[in-house]
Amino acid sequence: MPLLLLLAAVVNRLGAQDTPSPAAGEQIIPGSVIISGTVVADGTGRPIPYSTVRLQPLSRERFTDQAGAFVYYAVPPGKYELYVRQVGYLPHDTTIVVTANVPLRVSVTMVRIATALDAVKVSAPPRLCLTPDDFGVVADSELATVLEEAKKNAERETLLRHTYPFEYKIAQSHDTYDMDMRKHTLQYDTAIFRSDDSWRYRRGKVVSSDRDKLFGDVRLMRLPTLADLADKNFLANHCFKYAGVVDQNGVRTHRIDFLPDSLLIAPDVEGSIFMDSATYKILRAEFRLTKGGSVKPAILGMEVTTLYREILPNVALFGEIQSVQPLGVIKVGGNRIESRETQKLLSFRFLLSSPPGVIGHKWIAVGSVMADSLANLETLKVKRAPSKGPKQEQQPPPRDSPPGIPPLDAPQPSLPDGKTKHLM
């Protein structure tokens, strides 16, 4: 039952944003004006690229460009709230008043988070696992700071996915590992996915039933991803604990552990998130399926590790995706089998608008500028492409089955972004 986790997109060329034109739906209204501005760092005055800017009540959210600049067109006269966010900086909220036919220029100065969290060690006394309230607030001040930065990372991923939708090609390696013989059976294939998906976490609903044209009745397993940390429903059904500063491959990172509600008996997820202690950018996430034995047939376990990289300045998204699931003994008298899977990005293209300074609409190969990065984003349910790569040590199916139909006890096919298909 290998897991297909989804990867995402990167950039072809970065540069200062050209003078933009009005976006779709931003029609010229009598008396409306252009609001432009820049986001800079306190003390240095240097621009902060790819900050997120949202204008309320218009609900227009976007990234600034590499020079920290942003533009809103066709803003009617009135009073507005401007919300600016950047990982590692204090939130900046300001009220602006738009006068008819008078263009407005705004300068936003962001202040870095001043914190002594780097001194917190894992060896500190055990802490309670706290559940955020309806507004996402927790009592532990250190946990509150780190959790808020994790949510910012999640919100940036969501913004990229929905405001700048894209499709991408990934290369996958599937390893059916014989744990007793220490023997690998490798298979490679490629697939194309989209980034825009409306799936949302629901309490105890990570495993559900579905119907597939090829396989008939199946089960879909969908593990939440980083984006769910910005979802109030996910926050309300998990408790979080700040585990201090730990080393991750030579980098000091803040670690947050999370657990599902202890009263929940259905499958859900637990795991850990690691962020750079200096910048608060996401570096690593670990998700593990819980209560897999509560469904029949049981899901023996699922562990997913995601490594993140910066694909735009200050925009860190998923890098390499690895999943491991023990399958146990899948045929009488057989050996213990473990399914392992890895995904990497081959190329991508933005479908509609592109992030500022990024050339979209054309397939961008991994060899382009910064294009060795990738991301795990929620995707539409699409079929995996046929295997085109070499197969090594291919074994016969565990038991007889009709041509083209996998046996019920064979390793199961996968679906996009944390969806795993299980035959009923």
How would you characterize the overall build of this protein?
This protein is mainly beta. It has 2 domains: 33-110, Immunoglobulin-like (Sandwich), CATH 2.60.40.1120; 155-423, no CATH class. The protein contains 2 helices and 21 strands. Strands 8, 9, 12, 13, 14, 15, 16, 17, 18, 19 and 20 form an 11-stranded antiparallel β-sheet that branches. β16 (303-312) and β17 form a beta hairpin. It is globular. The two termini are 12 Å apart.
Radius of gyration from CA coordinates: 23 Å
Query: What is the overall pLDDT average?
Result: 76
- Count the beta strands: 21
The computed structural class is: mainly beta
Q: Give unreliable regions as ranges.
A: 1-20, 368-424
Q: Could you tell me the strand content as a percent range?
A: 35-45%
Shape annotation: globular
Defining key terms:
424 residues, mainly beta, Immunoglobulin-like, 2 domains, 21 strands, 7% helix, globular
Summarize the structure.
With 424 residues, the protein is mainly β. It is built from two helices and 21 strands. It folds into two domains: 78 residues, Immunoglobulin-like (Sandwich), CATH 2.60.40; 269 residues, no CATH class.
Could you outline the blueprint of secondary structure elements for this entry?
Layout: E1 33-41, E2 52-56, E3 60-63, E4 69-75, E5 78-85, E6 92-98, E7 104-110, H1 141-163, E8 166-178, E9 183-194, E10 207-212, E11 216-222, H2 232-236, E12 238-248, E13 251-260, E14 268-276, E15 282-290, E16 303-312, E17 315-329, E18 336-350, E19 364-365, E20 391-392, E21 419-423
Parallel strand pairs: 1-7
Antiparallel strand pairs: 1-4, 2-3, 2-5, 5-6, 8-9, 8-18, 9-20, 10-11, 11-21, 12-13, 13-14, 14-15, 15-16, 16-17, 17-18, 18-19
